[in-house]
Task: structure prediction
Amino acid sequence: MQNEKLKQIRQVKEVEYGSFENNMTNIGRMWSSLLGLKNNIPGYMVANMYVAAKLIRTNNKFKQDTYDDAANYLHQAELMQKKQNDSN
Result:
């Protein structure tokens, strides 16, 4: 049941914000540029950094949405890293 709920959240977010993978990749490029890095931060690492931010939020009051978001970011990061590794 939980996996289905998270899948539905991902579908809604994709309609609202576009491709998760493209967004994370573009954010990685932007952050890399802002930080003056030679290499781009991979999209999966951007997603993992968002997981870390969500975990920090759990130090405050409980909010189910925070855990749902963290789970979805982690799931998407896993898929992105596997895809990257498979293409190398």
